[in-house]
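Students often ask why inverse folding is considered easier than folding. One informal answer: many sequences map to the same fold, so there is more than one right answer. In these notes we will look at a single instance of the problem. The structure comes first.
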C-alpha cells in the first residue's frame, strides 16, 4: 500500500487551492494549506484534524516563506508535492497601472512562487524525490489587453519553471507548469486589484467585456482529478494545459502566432543571426 504523501499548497483558502486541498485530503493525503487568511479553511480543518495543517503565509515575504516551509516540512516529516497556487489579478490597461500595483502584483504571482520553490528544493533534494506544480495560465503564451501584467507574471513563471525543471531533475524532482484554463475561482470578486480607469480605453473595455461574456467557467473542483493524476505520473510533462476548451484555444493562438511570424519571414531574414 502506498504511503500518504504530504502536500504544501499555497493560496489554499479559496478557488483552485481549496479544491486541490480537498481532493488530496479525500485521497487520504496530508496537506499543509498556506494562505494569507486561513479562516475560510476552518471547516476543512474540523473535518480533517489529523491530516490538515493551516499555515498563515504571505508568499511575497521571502523570509516568511522560508520559515513557513521549514515548519511545513517538520509537521508531517517532509514534503512530497508542492503546489504554487497563490496569486491575484491586476485588471487594467498597461498605461493605467501604478508602479506600486505592478510591483505588488508580481511580488505575489511571480516572486512568491520563486521564493516557495527556492525554499522547498533543499527538502525535496534531501529526499531524492518530489513534485512542484506551478499554477500558471493558458494565457501565458501571449498578452491580452487589460490583463497584461497577469499574463506577464504567468509567462515569467512558465519560463522559470521550465529552467527549474531542467536544473532539479537530476535530484529526482519533477516540475510542471500547470497552465489553467478559466475556472470559477472567485478571482474577480476577491482577488483582483483594479486600476483607475482612463476614459480613453472605455471603447476597448466595452469590446473586451462583450468578447468575454458573463460565463464564470467550470467549478475549480472539476480540475482537481487532473491535478491528482498529474502529481502521480512517474514522468510528468513540463507544461500541461488544463481544460479541453482551453487546449483548443491555446493551439489556435499558437497557429495565429506562427502565421504572423511567417507573414513577416522575409523581413526577419534580412538580418544575420
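Output (designed amino acids):
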Amino acid at each position: 500500500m502506498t504511503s500518504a504523501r504530504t502536500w504544501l499548497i499555497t493560496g489554499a483558502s479559496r478557488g483552485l487551492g481549496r479544491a486541490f486541498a480537498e481532493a488530496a485530503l479525500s485521497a487520504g493525503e496530508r496537506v499543509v494549506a498556506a494562505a494569507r487568511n486561513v479562516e475560510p479553511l476552518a471547516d476543512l480543518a474540523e473535518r480533517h484534524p489529523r491530516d490538515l495543517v493551516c499555515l498563515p503565509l504571505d508568499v511575497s515575504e521571502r523570509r516568511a516563506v522560508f520559515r513557513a516551509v521549514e515548519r511545513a516540512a517538520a509537521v508531517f516529516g517532509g514534503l512530497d508535492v508542492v503546489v504554487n497556487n497563490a496569486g491575484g489579478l491586476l485588471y487594467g490597461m498597461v498605461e493605467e497601472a501604478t508602479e506600486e500595483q505592478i510591483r505588488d502584483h508580481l511580488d505575489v504571482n511571480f516572486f512568491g512562487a520563486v521564493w516557495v520553490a527556492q525554499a522547498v528544493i533543499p527538502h525535496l533534494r534531501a529526499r531524492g524525490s518530489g513534485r512542484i506544480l506551478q499554477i500558471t495560465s493558458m494565457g501565458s503564451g501571449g498578452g491580452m489587453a487589460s490583463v497584461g501584467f497577469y499574463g506577464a507574471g504567468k509567462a515569467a513563471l512558465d519560463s522559470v519553471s521550465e529552467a527549474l525543471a531542467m536544473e532539479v531533475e537530476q535530484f529526482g524532482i519533477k516540475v510542471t507548469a500547470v497552465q489553467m484554463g478559466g475556472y470559477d475561482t472567485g478571482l474577480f470578486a476577491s482577488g483582483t486589484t483594479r486600476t483607475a480607469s482612463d476614459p480613453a480605453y472605455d471603447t476597448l473595455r466595452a469590446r473586451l467585456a462583450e468578447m468575454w461574456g458573463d460565463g464564470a467557467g467550470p467549478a475549480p473542483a472539476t480540475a482537481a482529478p487532473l491535478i491528482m493524476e498529474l502529481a502521480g505520473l512517474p514522468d510528468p510533462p513540463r507544461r500541461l494545459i488544463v481544460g479541453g476548451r482551453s487546449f483548443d484555444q491555446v493551439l489556435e493562438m499558437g497557429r495565429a502566432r506562427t502565421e504572423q511570424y511567417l507573414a513577416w519571414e522575409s523581413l526577419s531574414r534580412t538580418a544575420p543571426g
